[in-house]
Amino acid sequence: MAKHIEYPNLEPLFRPKSIAVIGATEDPRRVAGLPLKFAIEHNYKGKLFPVNNNRESVLGLKCYSSILDIPEEVDAAMIVVPAAVVPDVIEQCAQKGVKVAVIGVSGFAELDKEGKKRHDKIVEIAKTSGMRICGPNTNGLLNVHEGISLGYSYAQEVVIPGRLGYVTQSGALLSATVPRFARRGIGMSYFVGAGNQADLEVFDYVRYLINDPNTDVIAVYVEGFKNPQKFIDVAGLAIEKRKPIVMLKVGRSELAVSAAKSHTGSLAGSDPIVDAICKQKGVARVDDFDELIAVSSVFLKCKLPKGNRVGIISSSGGAIGLVADRAMGSRISFTDVSAKTKQQALAVLPWYGEFKSPFDIAAAGSKATQDVELARKAVDFILFDENVDILLAIITPMERRGTQNYIQAIIDASRSSDKPVILFAPMGGLREEEETIFYEGNVPMLTDSAECVIALDAMLEFAEAIRRQKDAEELPDINSHVDKEKIKKELFDKKNKTLSEHESKQLLSYYGIPVVEEAMAVSPDEAIKIAEKIGYPVVLKIDSPDIAHKTEADAVRLGITNRDKLVHAFHEVENNARKYAPHASIKGVSIQKMIKDAREVIVGLSYDPQFGSVVMFGLGGVFVEVLKDVSLRVAPLSRADAEEMIKEIKGHKLLEPFRGKPAADTEGIADVLLKLSAMATDLGNVIAEIDINPLMVKGEGVMAADALVILK
Amino acid sequence: MAKHIEYPNLEPLFRPKSIAVIGATEDPRRVAGLPLKFAIEHNYKGKLFPVNNNRESVLGLKCYSSILDIPEEVDAAMIVVPAAVVPDVIEQCAQKGVKVAVIGVSGFAELDKEGKKRHDKIVEIAKTSGMRICGPNTNGLLNVHEGISLGYSYAQEVVIPGRLGYVTQSGALLSATVPRFARRGIGMSYFVGAGNQADLEVFDYVRYLINDPNTDVIAVYVEGFKNPQKFIDVAGLAIEKRKPIVMLKVGRSELAVSAAKSHTGSLAGSDPIVDAICKQKGVARVDDFDELIAVSSVFLKCKLPKGNRVGIISSSGGAIGLVADRAMGSRISFTDVSAKTKQQALAVLPWYGEFKSPFDIAAAGSKATQDVELARKAVDFILFDENVDILLAIITPMERRGTQNYIQAIIDASRSSDKPVILFAPMGGLREEEETIFYEGNVPMLTDSAECVIALDAMLEFAEAIRRQKDAEELPDINSHVDKEKIKKELFDKKNKTLSEHESKQLLSYYGIPVVEEAMAVSPDEAIKIAEKIGYPVVLKIDSPDIAHKTEADAVRLGITNRDKLVHAFHEVENNARKYAPHASIKGVSIQKMIKDAREVIVGLSYDPQFGSVVMFGLGGVFVEVLKDVSLRVAPLSRADAEEMIKEIKGHKLLEPFRGKPAADTEGIADVLLKLSAMATDLGNVIAEIDINPLMVKGEGVMAADALVILK
User: Fold this and answer.
1) Is B508 a domain residue?
2) What are residue A548's phi and psi, to 5 degrees?
3) Which residues contact A295 (CB under 8 A, 6 or more apart)?
4) What distance in Å separates the CA atoms of residue B51 and residue B48, rounded to the nearest whole number?
5) Which of A184, A250, A271, A552 to mutate to test the interface with B (most CBs of B within 10 A)?
6) Which residue in the set A30, A398, A626 is minimally distant from B651, CB to CB?
7) pLDDT per position as a tens digit, A671-695
8) In terms of domains, do A221 and A200 share one?
9) Which chain B residues contact residue A449 at CB under 8 A?
């Protein structure tokens, strides 16, 4: 599915050598008064040109009446004039050879029809001139380390420098949330508001940040994908470069989808597919800003863990339960320390009846926290234990110097180990004297148990995505023997968009997907011969390219055990089909082996207009129809992807040994999913949909009992 | 099930006229130095007696060497001596006639065997003397309004007065979280740490607070219920008195259960039953302290809404989606304003293309927020609209005075309406000038979208619980005609604890639960006569009190359509049963009508050692076995309880019209649930378990096709 995706050069945006502020004024209470002010305050080292035909100078700088009057080259233009004149200004910028323009005002596609015209106009100019556009409807950006500002958000005043890149589609939420990051001590390398994404889009910026040496982690707020393939591609790059993306994406609900549309004119995209891509590509999708901040902070401060075993030290017995409850269903596993550690620890901390993880450091009257050396030893016994991959340290206020000693011990211990150390503070923050110690260290502090679990899970998922990517480098060879061109031609020659069951199964078997033994009969006599050959019991189904829903037509009969019943069923199936669709072309009745003692699952391939070919898996019957219990992945799939799809559904227990049935052949299911993925790669532009429903799954072996292929 | 539950008199604990602090010292860095210090600082109006045999006076007060030396009456004693001497001190307190003692030290049942002995000793003294005990292993309590302190938690220094009562089992989490409430501007009437609940327990304190005129809402952190029936009873009182309980209860996971046990010696109780009781009794169960704080603040500041329709005004289009996404699956319904309001609003705010809810007040360039009067009008158009029950106002930083004007408008509007107004601030807090306005108002501020949804849902659930309680006052008359004593005698006379299917069904029919037509045959000839009478197809099942699991014994045959098959099946069933359990007493073979075109559901009654009789409902097959998709309620049930049980399961869609079947007779299912509840009330001390599996449900009518009753 990989298309040729082109990415812009964003150096002139994030590191312009010269900036023009078009519409600049001196009044700091107005939007137009801020960009120049911020640029000056951040000590911009390049050249600054105010443009305003009502002024001689602004903030001490010579002012030009038009950008065309500026005698030097202009890399970037920040535009804060009314929307109505923006197209003309943009035209001039292009003429001037400006490389990138930031449109800091609203009144475009998000507002009304006139606004949409303005949108189309500026997109047209960008396309023909090659000048790139950030926004409109954005409050701009800041290169924090180099002090390069093209914007006017309140965030410019409060951001602190660091290694998080932050890209958000909403300007209001940029201003709202950068202060939250700062209050939690999380510094940024860049932030940028993407606004309406008329030209440049969220994942253009994300890609730049992935390649940026000052950025370790990228936090993203997004309402809609302009080019969904770019999202997939950039997420892949993030894994390759080991730079986690933490993404808050709205659009799970109808109201959110319509709000996003009216807000920035974005299409939110199919939410379950977005979820699937995040799982597949290790993107940590979160649902709120607390989570965005918590997960970002853990990625920023911790190395990835080697495994999922979490040891706990806590000054509150109760708080352990908070985390344990939340961790149900997560990837986290809580572990005790080894027998060796227990023994060693008891020699040092003899007043605890037993040393174990979770370890309640306050249980014996805070003895261990009255002394920073002892506290350190308690922490070390868990952190350095061979069973422990991650240390969760829980802290509540203690008497005397207890809290300070305990924090000191945690910070010191974390410095001497590569294992992630997370601090969970149910009190929501530290006292001043404790904060001093804390901020010197490299330990993220989380203030609720959900944050702890979401953040740890995100680390484990990212580590897993890295492993999967390595695994995917050797994609299984499925389709090298398949004559794709011949098949494509065959499909192009079809008259019906909807293939019959027989044709559909034939296509599947080209790719090695096993299908149930069957043959077509045009008379009861033929049917008898076939049934006797393949053996009773058999199944009868009408074979007609015009009847896709055979059950609805009552043109299927199961479990036919003898000749009499067969003849009777043959007539019934034929008659019902004719009644259901009098003008249908009927090829005959398909006689198939009845598969017993098998589980029924559903696998399929569909084409999403935004995300391309999507592979689907679910259990048969009510699981898909009522509970919508399906898993999705975008093609191409690795074997690990296919295996996770199978494990992911809620009803997965039904694939384990159940009511006397052996475990289902999940390897066989995974094979079929990979084959569907290969079909998507080869035939994605021909095939609209494939449904295998049911795929019969035995202890060993799988077989498509029914199939439906729809062409584009 | 209502037992005689006795409640203590807690006046001497929360309003003692005199207090002795046993173990008092002057060193404020030690626990023993704090209770007297806090009592003095809070300006305690009663008499204070330090007790310490090493000192003449403490903090300027005459010190006694033993409580027995105090010449006046002592209502309450705060004990901060080492655990080893606590039993002796408690003995002396009892002798002195102290009404209640707070044991502020650890080293009891939570520590070791010696500690358990001390625990038993003090419990014994309390029982014989009538003196009540708070703790041990608690940092005490504070009556905030009257400044009466019996404790030493750091929380004593930071709490602010207000109308929230706070009861927590963990002292560490009390100290950790009271500051969080205070930082959010939430004041308290009382807080108390229950500790090990050796005598007084969490729900004794909660009950006191429900009856307290200074308390409107009770927040609870609990690890285990000492007397689970008290929890149920007190939750019922809370509804009656319209005082919501917000409860953070750990114990969903195994690790949390074992942590609670080692922490305070508490048994966590069956978590799904705790959940069920919370739903039934309108207790808002939360999973973290942010949620505890958020839900408490909404209950404190808002009147209950009349309905679930939420109107939104926002200064950020994106933030609307955050809340909408979270609200999926909640009770919340987002609503637009009426046509009339739309028209009126456009006359006042003409620069918006359309007035609607959600209303993006910043969309037209913040025009409406540049003027506080206009902002107020925008808020009013939504708040006072006839379609709106609740206003959610979302705020992000705006330029110039926008933010302040908008907050002012929200606060002013909320004062003129009884409808709840909730402020969602994704920026996590307000700037100083905004906070000044905000804290004058009566609007709760929440900082993430999950909090908004959880808090609104909690209000809706509490309002619903009030409605249910009114409804429950007229409990349906189910069992007045039943001769309970006769039935009890019949059950007492049974030799087997496990009743046969026939006996089980007989018991059900005493309570009017319809059972499938059946009769017992001891020979094939008899079977034929019965089958011909009730009509083919029939079902055959072995009838033996010794074979509870007939399917496992392969002693069931379904869908028998004629005489030959009947005779064959009769022998098979009999032979298989004998093979399965050679010594079983076999009464015969039950011949039953085969029910077709019905849905199979499972209903049951079981006895939980902590919570008493529990009624269960679920769908048949994989839904219960694999997905554990069941709903529970403790008996007695109201009709509304029964109806909610049915709606609550994930697979409830299967009860709607489905694959040609009409909607299931849910009224009939509810009847059976109510009848089981009545059986629990009448026969709870005789019956251990009832399983009706399956209950066949048609479009009209339900029938027990199989039943199993186990006696205690």
Assistant:
1) no
2) -80, -35
3) A246, A284, A286, A451, A454, A455, A458
4) 10
5) A250
6) A626
7) 999 999 999 999 988 999 999 999 9
8) yes
9) 287-288
The CATH number assigned to the domain holding A541 equals 3.30.1490.20
Q: B1: pLDDT confidence band, cut at 50, 70 and 90? A: very low
A702: domain CATH number is: 3.30.470.20
Q: Per the CB < 8 Å rule, is B360 touching A262? A: yes
A254 & A310 share domain: no
Beta-carbon contacts of B413 under 8 Å, excluding residues fewer than 6 positions away, are: B376, B379, B380, B383, B391, B421
Q: Is the pTM of this model over 0.80?
A: yes
Q: Which of B577, B594, B611 is the last residue of a domain?
A: B594
Q: What residues in B contact A31, CB-CB < 8 Å?
A: 399
B428/A175 touch (CB, cutoff 8 Å), yes or no: no
pLDDT (tens digit per residue) in A93-133 = 999 999 999 999 988 988 888 999 999 999 999 999 999 99
Contact check, Cβ <8 Å, B321/A255: yes
Model pLDDT for residues B310-361, shown as the tens digit of each residue: 999 999 888 999 999 999 999 999 999 999 999 999 999 888 878 999 999 8
Whether residues A358 and B259 touch (CB distance < 8 A) is answered with yes
The chain B residue lying nearest A271, using CA atoms, is: B325
Instruction: Give yes or no: residues B285 and B231 share one domain.
Output: yes
User: Roughly what angle, to the nearest 10 degrees, separates helices B228-240 and B202-210?
Assistant: 10
Distance (Å, rounded) from C-alpha B197 to C-alpha B204?
A: 10
Residue A290 sits in the same domain as residue A314: no
Of the candidates B594, B620, B637, which is a domain's last residue?
A: B594
Is residue A652 situated within a structural domain?
Answer: yes
Q: Cβ separation of B253 and A324 shorter than 8 Å?
A: yes
- A320 contacts on B by Cβ (under 8 Å): 255-256, 259, 263
Residue of A320, A394, A405 to mutate, interface with B, max B Cβ within 10 Å = A320
Q: How far apart are CA A553 and CA A156, in angstroms?
A: 65
Q: How far is CA B313 from the centre of its chain?
A: 32
Which CATH number fits the domain that encloses residue A157? 3.40.50.261
Q: Are residues B254 and B387 in the same domain?
A: no
Q: A219 and A343, same structural domain?
A: no
Question: Could you tell me which residues are beta bridge partners of residue A354?
Answer: none
Q: How many CB atoms sit inside 10 A of residue B473's CB?
A: 7
Chain centroid to CA A241: 16
Report how many domains make up chain A: 4
Q: Looking at the structure, tell me whether residues B588 and B649 fall in a common domain.
A: no
**A320 to B259: CB separation less than 8 angstroms, yes or no:** yes
Q: Dig out the tokens for B520 from the structure.
A: 């017992």
Q: Is A261 within the bounds of a domain? A: yes
Report CB contact under 8 Å: B449, A288: yes
Cβ-Cβ contacts under 8 Å for B199 (sequence gap 6 or more): B122, B123, B126, B132, B133, B134
Other Cβ atoms less than 10 A from the Cβ of A393: the count is 27
Given B248, B320, B426, which is nearest A176 (Cβ)? Answer: B426
In a domain, A6, yes or no: no
Range of the domain at A626: 599-711
Angle, nearest 10°, between helix axes A86-96 and A113-129? 0
Query: Which of A196, A119, A133 minimizes the C-alpha distance to B363?
Result: A196
Q: Check B172 against A626: CB less than 8 A apart.
A: no
Task: Quote ipTM for the complex.
Answer: 0.90
Angle subtended at Cα B383 by Cα B378 and Cα B385, rounded to the nearest 5 degrees: 100
Taking the C-alpha atoms of residue A33 and residue A55, their distance in angstroms, rounded to an integer, is 13
Nearest CA in chain B to A627: B651
Residues A240 and A381 in one domain: no
∠ CA A614-A545-A591 to the nearest 5 degrees? 100
